[in-house]
Automatic annotation (TrEMBL), chain A:
Protein origin, superkingdom: Eukaryota
Pfam families according to UniProt: SRF-TF
Naturally occurring in which organism (per UniProt): Brassica campestris (Field mustard)
Molecular function per GO: cis-regulatory region sequence-specific DNA binding; DNA-binding transcription factor activity, RNA polymerase II-specific; protein dimerization activity
Protein name: MADS-box domain-containing protein
PROSITE patterns, alphabetized: MADS_BOX_2
GO biological process: positive regulation of transcription by RNA polymerase II
Record has Transferase as a keyword: no
From TrEMBL, chain B:
Protein name, per record: MADS-box domain-containing protein
UniProt entry keywords in alphabetical sequence: Coiled coil, DNA-binding, Nucleus, Transcription, Transcription regulation
SUPFAM superfamilies according to UniProt: SRF-like
GO MF term list: DNA-binding transcription factor activity, RNA polymerase II-specific; protein dimerization activity; RNA polymerase II cis-regulatory region sequence-specific DNA binding
Taxonomic path: Eukaryota, Viridiplantae, Streptophyta, Embryophyta, Tracheophyta
GO biological process, one term: regulation of transcription by RNA polymerase II
Domain MADS-box: 1-50
Predominant place of localization: nucleus
Source organism of the structure: Brassica campestris (Field mustard)
Domain of life: Eukaryota
């Protein structure tokens, strides 16, 4: 935690003074509700939590509800009916942006801007993946002369040669997620002029020939993850039908950039 | 804090989802229990999940029924007055974060002023307003130091008697 020493064992019995109770109530109600939110979110359960307020006001209630409103859940409980099930990720047949409720639930312009931004980034990500796949196909044809541990200059020239035919479009890849202003990764048209340090060069170049040689993808295959982030899911989710049996050439650019950054700093 | 990364969306893997549900539900009910004891109030929870037919209730059916009847008996405004959902929670968290930010900004401002005050070449006329504030900061610090001196002196007095 940022400030050390905030975790102490507290005796679980009623707090003495009214103020202590009020303080405990406000703090704990907040954590309680946020934990219920997480539970709802992560497991798709439909939850309602009701809490009365301490002190002399027994008629004030706070409630928290997950996917349905609290009143709905109360009615369901009394009537013995089940509230609507939360649809799992497998059952979505369309894309998240085609969901009609998405737009009607936006209250103001900023939310629509956020959605627009997300969609733009999605598109950019996909275009990058597509280009990368094309590149790798070209690179793999000149693969036979490359060794993973070749000197940087040699690999560099080979990379340059093999990717030049794509008239500079290869350079755009490493400008990938420029929406967040990472323009330092935007390379000039003339690849030889880029001001990369040798270490960065090595990372990039070593990775490119290695991908095509290995049969495993560099996508997050981390089985320990509790769930995939939006971007990973996107790469996995064969949106444009790119991946028909060619999983080994789809690369997650996020990994790439992270490697570069950690290698640099 | 937190040993694992948590993505705030439905967990795709069924087995992990079930385990997470069980663990977090247990934790949630524990916290709810503590709240009722510490603050001496009444609370209940209803959980509908894929893992059980029908709702799971806490603490027991009778208490839930009693509380919910009372809830329903309240006028609608009172019912919805403190009804929160995830959006509201997020908004609250945002507001709390903003408040903390403001506080921190004030602190750093005060420190800045302290630095200005302690530097020796205060000649800039533009800073007049800041100088006043800096003077305030310095005065407050003087006060604190005086109190500390008093405390130490009285403490020292006690020591000498011993």
């Amino acid at each position: 935690m940022a400030r050390g020493g905030t975790k102490r064992k507290i005796e679980i019995k009623k707090r003495e003074t009214k103020e202590q109770r009020a303080v405990a109530y406000s703090k704990r109600r907040k954590t309680l509700f946020s934990k219920s939110a997480e539970l709802c979110c992560l497991s798709g359960a439909n939850i309602a939590v009701f809490v009365t307020s301490p002190g002399d006001k027994p008629n004030v209630a706070s409630s928290f509800s997950g996917h349905a409103s609290a009143s709905e859940i109360v009615d369901c409980y009394f009537n013995g009916t089940l509230p609507p099930k939360i649809s799992g990720p497998e059952s979505k047949s369309g894309f998240w942006w085609t969901d009609p409720d998405l737009y009607s639930s936006c209250d103001d312009l900023s939310q629509l801007d956020v959605i627009e931004d997300l969609i733009k980034r999605t598109k950019k990500d996909l275009m990058d993946c597509l280009e990368k796949q094309e590149n790798s196909r070209v690179c793999s044809s000149s693969d036979s002369h490359q060794k993973p541990n070749s000197s940087s200059s040699q690999a560099f020239t080979m990379y340059q040669n093999s990717c030049n035919p794509l008239d500079g479009s290869s350079q755009v890849i490493y400008g990938g997620e420029s929406s967040s202003g990472q323009s330092r990764y935007l390379v000039n048209k003339d690849v030889g002029n880029c001001l990369w340090e040798t270490k960065k060069e090595n990372n990039l170049i070593m990775s490119v020939p290695q991908e095509t040689e290995q049969t495993q993808s560099i996508i997050n295959v981390d089985g320990g993850d509790e769930g995939q982030s939006f971007w990973d899911e996107l790469c996995d989710e064969d949106v444009f039908g790119l991946n028909n049996g060619e999983d080994d050439v789809m690369i997650d650019i996020g990994e790439f950039l992270n490697d570069i950054e950690s290698g640099e700093s | 804090m937190g040993r694992r990364k948590v993505t705030h969306q439905l967990i795709s893997d069924n087995a992990t989802r079930r385990v997470t549900f069980r663990k977090r539900k247990h934790g949630l009910l524990k916290k709810l229990n503590e709240l009722t004891i510490l603050c001496g109030l009444r609370a209940c929870a209803i959980i509908y999940s894929d893992y059980e037919e029908g709702p799971e209730v806490w603490p027991n059916r009778k208490e839930v029924r009693v509380l919910l009847n009372r809830f329903r008996a309240l006028p609608v405004e009172k019912q919805t007055k403190f009804m929160m959902d995830q959006k509201d929670l997020m908004n609250r968290m945002i507001q709390d974060a903003k408040k903390r930010l403001e506080k921190e900004q004030m602190h750093s401002r005060a420190m800045e002023l302290g630095l200005i005050a302690s530097s020796n070449d205060i000649r800039d006329a533009d800073y007049s307003e800041d100088l006043i504030k800096a003077a305030d900061v310095v005065e407050k610090k003087i006060k604190v130091i005086r109190e500390r001196i008093k405390a130490v002196e009285s403490g020292a007095a006690i020591l000498m008697i011993e």
